[in-house]
Amino acid sequence: MISDAFKKVRDLFKPQYDKKSLMEILPDDVFLVSYPKSGNTWMRFLIGNYISDHKVDFTNSHLVVPDLHFNPEYCKEIHARPRFIKSHMPYTSKYPRVIYIVRDGRDVAVSYYYYRLKRGDLSKEETSFSEYLKDFYLEGIPLFGTWSQNVASWLDRMKDGNILLLKYEDVLKDTETELVKALEFAGLDIEKKRLERAIEESSFPRMQELEVRQHNECPTLGKELENKDILFVREGRSGGWKNYFSIEDEKAFYKYNNSVMDKLGYI
Question: Could you read off the pLDDT of 78-118 as tens digits, one per residue?
């Protein structure tokens, strides 16, 4: 059953900590939140390169911007303020400030499809894209829910005033403007040259080159993954879903995600 195979991903995103070791959240912490495969890694590089004077790569990004699901214990080692922390969780009131990154759910589905192929827990020969897609929008990802559930949980709290919404597609179109929004939201001063350098060092070709070179030494890329020919940083564009969705796939996806898609203009 596809659903059985789909459940294998729960170990991937299962938090690697227990309640006793949970990090202490500080009032000025900024959480970079998104559904998986929505651009969080790219934003992490952009902000990380800005605050670290362009020193971020795949071997240290989890140290500059700790991952709540990978190394939350490292947060206490960061003394600069504000701290930036990565998360994929649905809405929680515990996060004092949130930069929520949203991406067209159809592109998210394709990106996550390739990630599962990379992990080796999905096979093109055994599972069609349409079969995979049905599990994606019906079952979602363990701990994080479906794409619609996760996104809606944050959209419904936008009125709280402590959440900045960034659309992946807008970051692609005007990276500088959207990065400035994120940095100003966090209370940081903007330095033009540092900004331009951070964007340059976080370009997709640069990140892909780093991934290939550092794959075997990078804990966050999952060096044990079976298919190393599929990159984690794959394309960095929008609209690629059109090459994968049949008309029936698109109708079914819209049926279960129409509310969020309409609200965000993904029609």
Answer: 989 999 999 999 999 999 999 999 999 999 999 999 888 87
| The one-letter amino acid at 133 | L
CATH superfamily assigned to domain 2-264: P-loop containing nucleotide triphosphate hydrolases (3.40.50.300)
The 3-state secondary structure of the chain reads CHHHHHHHHHHHHCCCCCHHHCCCCCCCCEEEEECCCCCHHHHHHHHHHHHCCCCCCCCCHHHHCCECCCCHHHHHHCCCCCCEEEECCCCCCCCCEEEEEECCHHHHHHHHHHHHHHHCCCCCCCCCHHHHHHHHHHHCECCCECHHHHHHHHHCCHHHCCEEEEEHHHHHHCHHHHHHHHHHHCCCCCCHHHHHHHHHHCCHHHHHHHHHHHHHHCHHHCCCCCCCCCCCCCCCCCCHHHHCCCHHHHHHHHHHHHHHHHHHCCC
Q: Is the pLDDT of residue 241 over 90?
A: yes
